Amino acid sequence: MDARKTAEAHLEAWRAGDAEAVAAVVATYTDPDQPGPLAGEELAAHAAATLARFRNLDLQVDRVTGDEDAAAVSWRLVADHREAYLGMPATGGTVTVSGLDLVTVDEGGAHVRRVFDRLAVAEALGYTARFVPAADETREFGVSARAATGRTEPPGALVLTWLEVRDDAESADVDLLSVEIVKSLRASRGFLGAATFDVGERKFTLSVFDRPESLRAVHARPHQRAIRRFFKGGLCTRGHTSVWHPASVRDYARCPSCEQVVTVGTGAACECGWTPDGASTL
Q1: In this predicted structure, what is the pLDDT of residue 251?
Q2: How many of the other CB atoms lie within 10 Å of CB of 269?
Q3: pLDDT at residue 130 above 80?
Q4: Quick one: average pLDDT of 237-266?
Q5: Per-residue confidence at 155, pLDDT binned at 50, 70, 90?
Q6: What is the rounded average pLDDT for all residues in the chain?
Q7: Is 110 exposed, middle or buried (0-12, 13-18, 19+ CB in 10 A)?
Q8: Which residues contact 42 (CB under 8 A, 6 or more apart)?
Q9: Considering only the top CATH level, what class is 3-124?
Q10: What pLDDT is recorded for position 143?
């Protein structure tokens, strides 16, 4: 068995989009998306999932070096992002990434170790990496997002929901549903804003409305689709929803000159005469 020829055949299987051929060419395969080597049916399944996420592969070889026992292939890939990857929903955009395949041959067959920069893939898809620990002794960590409307009315009702997801693919699915729900809510007059928090396996959403009667806006079609997916479509393992009414609302701002704290929305000014502008509710 020749390592250089195996490297060429392995890349050709990827180019052809043939997951079974990817698995048949080599004895084991490893890449940054897997904790350890894959072989046989597991490798075929992994290749199929990768080919589903990134379609229309244009895989170009930059250089091949080595001999019959070991070969290194540097390559450049251009593909369309069509399914969730690392929790990132399908963007529909094109990703370009470079990598290296190290192919070795022994009595057990050919072994491929693929190396590429997952951060570069994320950046190519429009994402910025943020590094946080999974947890410490008292806390779990995650990421958050904010959807503000610029409206300054005081909140009269808050809706808290959370869903518990199984994996990154389901997390991305929930993100897409959440985006559509927020888009529909922004068209309603009583919606003031929303914030989302991903912590562990739970995805939280806090939505703010000017009064309880405005909660009717959540019955728009995107929200109804999400409800059907949960109750009838098997989406997520647990869910929670609740409505909260604020007992008190206070908003403060610090003067950029004298640093005195001033209450927002009351017309109050600091000692140097500065009055804070109204800020969005969320």
Answers
A1: 87
A2: 13
A3: no
A4: 92
A5: very high
A6: 91
A7: buried
A8: none
A9: alpha beta
A10: 84
Helix (H) / strand (E) containing 5: helix 3-16
Q: Report pLDDT for 279.
A: 62
First to last CA, the chain: 63
Q: What is the DSSP string of 153-206?
A: PPP-EEEEEEEE-SSHHHHHHHHHHHHHHHHHHHTSTTEEEEEEEEETTEEEEE
> Tell me, what's the pLDDT at 93?
87
Residue ranges per structural domain of the chain: 3-124, 142-244, 250-282
**Backbone angles phi and psi of 88, in degrees to 5:** -90, 120
Q: Of 19, 10, 11, whose CA–CA distance to 53 is shortest?
A: 19
pTM of the shown model: 0.68
Strands 252-254 and 238-244, by their bridges, are unpaired
Q: Is 62 exposed, middle or buried, given 0-12, 13-18 or 19+ CB atoms closer than 10 A? A: exposed
What is the pLDDT, as a whole number, of residue 281?
64
For residue 72, give both structure tokens.
């290194």
Helix (H, G, I), strand (E, B) or coil at 98: strand
The C-alpha atoms of residue 229 and residue 217 are separated, in whole angstroms, by 19
Sign of the CA dihedral 121, 145, 173, 220?
Answer: negative
- The pLDDT of residue 280: 60
3-124 and 142-244, same CATH topology = no
Q: What is the pLDDT of residues 59-118, one digit of tens each?
A: 999 998 988 889 999 999 999 999 888 878 888 889 999 999 999 999 999 999 999 999
Tokens of 155: 């909140």
CATH T-level assignment (fold) for domain 142-244 = Alpha-Beta Plaits (3.30.70)
